[in-house]
Amino acid sequence: MSAKAVKKHKYRIGKMTFLDYVLLVVLSILALMIIIPFLNVIAISLSSQKDYADNPMMLFPKNPTLDAYKALFQDGRILTGFWNTFKILIVGLPLSLFLTSTMAYALSRNKFPGKKFFFFLVLFTMIFNGGIVPLYLVMKALHLTGTLWSVVLVGSFSAFNMILMMNYFQGLPESLMESARLDGAGEWKILLSIVLPLSAPIMATITLFYGVAFWNGWYDAMIFLRKADMLPLQNVLRTIIVESTTNVSNAASVDALNKSGFSTGMKMASVFVSMVPIMCFFPLLQKHFAKGVLTGAIKT
């Protein structure tokens, strides 16, 4: 490339076109649409009933207070909810990754017997669902209702995640597997020593998908669990918020309303409390996330 061409190329990089400005404005608006509601949630959780009544759309609390968080954590159930959710994650996440990666690897191999038939069965579950009643009857027959294992097993496999991982595995060089087989390596050795180390992006992506699903899950726990001391975090937060809202609606005076607590502040505090762990977890996998999704979705 000549010096003149290099100079012209640098000039084009440094100068923004009209389309660049339009994209900048659009992306800035989209960013504000995400950031402003998030700031509003934090501000309301740190505000009093009076400040919220004066300005519901606040972005910064006028008189910050931790009363909503104190009321939320004074109830010992929330710590129990954190512990139950942690147990579901610590068991369900490795199990989900194991089931998904092993099936994805098997279906990604062209020589796997019955590949099309098993892939059809997986794809069939994405289109048709038996419903909650057959699922409950299966869990009841296995004597798993009322235990955390019911929640773990129900969410331990996702056909969508498996297809993403399978497509990623299909994009890996087949010559690596053939070389390992010539050296006497079995399928388990190939999966653990070659395939998984080369699949960090998709593994990080699937880990994030399953982690968020287990963390935000509440419906399965509502169906299968009955004891209050076994409920995960989302169900505990829902119970606390419903009770707080009921107390406020039943308050017959201003004094009773003040004693019942700031229900909207507790709702926002519960939203923030449930988001913080995922917000801390996401940056650890962010660099692999986009690559894993794009590659897993494009490869065939």
Automatic annotation (TrEMBL):
<dbReference type="GO" id="GO:0005886">
    <property type="term" value="C:plasma membrane"/>
</dbReference>
<keyword id="KW-0812">Transmembrane</keyword>
<feature type="transmembrane region" description="Helical">
    <location>
        <begin position="117"/>
        <end position="137"/>
    </location>
</feature>
<keyword id="KW-1133">Transmembrane helix</keyword>
<dbReference type="InterPro" id="IPR035906">
    <property type="entry name" value="MetI-like_sf"/>
</dbReference>
<feature type="transmembrane region" description="Helical">
    <location>
        <begin position="86"/>
        <end position="105"/>
    </location>
</feature>
<comment type="similarity">
    <text>Belongs to the binding-protein-dependent transport system permease family.</text>
</comment>
<protein>
    <submittedName>
        <fullName>Carbohydrate ABC transporter permease</fullName>
    </submittedName>
</protein>
<keyword id="KW-0813">Transport</keyword>
<dbReference type="Pfam" id="PF00528">
    <property type="entry name" value="BPD_transp_1"/>
</dbReference>
<dbReference type="GO" id="GO:0055085">
    <property type="term" value="P:transmembrane transport"/>
</dbReference>
<feature type="transmembrane region" description="Helical">
    <location>
        <begin position="268"/>
        <end position="285"/>
    </location>
</feature>
<feature type="domain" description="ABC transmembrane type-1">
    <location>
        <begin position="82"/>
        <end position="285"/>
    </location>
</feature>
<keyword id="KW-1003">Cell membrane</keyword>
<feature type="transmembrane region" description="Helical">
    <location>
        <begin position="149"/>
        <end position="169"/>
    </location>
</feature>
<feature type="transmembrane region" description="Helical">
    <location>
        <begin position="190"/>
        <end position="215"/>
    </location>
</feature>
<dbReference type="InterPro" id="IPR000515">
    <property type="entry name" value="MetI-like"/>
</dbReference>
<feature type="transmembrane region" description="Helical">
    <location>
        <begin position="21"/>
        <end position="46"/>
    </location>
</feature>
<keyword id="KW-0472">Membrane</keyword>
